[in-house]
Amino acid sequence: MSVTTPKGFAAAGVTAGLKPSGKPDVAVVVNQGPDQAAAAVFTTNRVFAAPIKWSREAVADGQLNAVVLNSGGANACTGSEGYADSAATASRVADRLGLIIDNVAVCSTGLIGVRLPMETLLPGVDAACTAVSTDGGASAAEAIMTTDTVAKQASVSVDGWSIGGMAKGAGMLAPGLATMLVVLTTDAVVDAGALDAALREASRVSFDRADSDGCMSTNDTVIAMSSGASGVTPDAATFQEALTGICVDLARQLIADAEGASHEIAVEVIGAASERDAVVVGREIARSNLFKCAIFGNDPNWGRVLSAIGVTDAAFHADELDVSFNGVMLCRGGQIGEDRSKVDLSERYVRVTVDLHAGHDSATILTNDLTYDYVKENAEYST
């Protein structure tokens, strides 16, 4: 269950010494073909890291041979020197693996505003390139972790082809994309245009709807690569469903690990006049610190949900709103519903459902509760 589950991919994760902890910090994922189709989506933050600039240019032609990733340093806000460091990292991978430098993407994560120690990073890149294997997916997923407590991986197999993925992210999680590095691989035969369209749709309803702390990163990157090694060309709908499923799985893993959360929360908005309205309402609730505090305290305080809805411009009538916690409708028609003592929030997973009664569209936002002590202990400006 990793990026090397699909045929045609090899990976590795090694310790270069970028992290004071001595944990793995450099990963490489290689597409061994026969196809080299690729697509990517990046942060919408106007302040973006050097690897973002490099990788946007690398994937512009719809092809990638490899992705090299490092934790222990974001290489963000480092100027032209930082861009040169990203280029040097891609060049090292290309030299060691016999690839074209312009077909190597670069991803970095860690502290913002600090140059990468290239004298440490590049030997680590050499080691990772030497170690790549079809069994290296798990080590690669471990090497991209920062404040993550667990590696995040997923895979699915469908009718002779498969998709695999790995992700990192445990803070600065907010829409567009949420803070993350994600690599997705497939051995299905999918051209670059179709892969790009599928990735954007999958990201739109998964990573773009993961919101833990309302903070957007400078380094968000989601890269998808197709080797075509299965020889199977799935229909577009089947491929979309599978890719979206993997992205939702990884997004849920990010939320589960984010900021030391004690609850994973799905805010489901139904009966909206438009999908846009559903997303706006869901995000407003998900970002309410009062709502998060209530969930953390195992209190199904539906009043905090209503107050969050009320500041949006979504279409609704206040006296028609229904709010349910784990299937118990505590607010019916904008008024008191079932007794809140019927709701048990002791379990980790919580679903809050809001019915706006204004239409037929819906959306679900993934969030969590925040624990102050965890945030305090991990208060670095990192990505």
Count of distinct strands: 15
- Based on Cα principal axes, name the global outline: globular
Q: What radius of gyration results from the CA coordinates?
A: 21 Å
CATH architecture of the largest domain: 4-Layer Sandwich
| Tally of separate helices | 10
Helix content: 25-40%
Indicate how many domains the architecture comprises.
2
Q: Give the low-confidence spans.
A: 172-178, 372-383
Overall pLDDT metric: 92
Cα-to-Cα separation, first versus last residue: 25 Å
Portion in beta strands? 15-25%
- The secondary-structure element order is EEEHEHEHHEEEHEHEHHHEEEEEH
CATH superfamily of the largest domain: L-amino peptidase D-ALA esterase/amidase
Q: Using the coordinates above, name the CATH class of the largest domain.
A: Alpha Beta
Protein name: Arginine biosynthesis bifunctional protein ArgJ
EC number: 2.3.1.35, 2.3.1.1
Active site: 179 (nucleophile)
Function: Catalyzes two activities which are involved in the cyclic version of arginine biosynthesis: the synthesis of N-acetylglutamate from glutamate and acetyl-CoA as the acetyl donor, and of ornithine by transacetylation between N(2)-acetylornithine and glutamate.
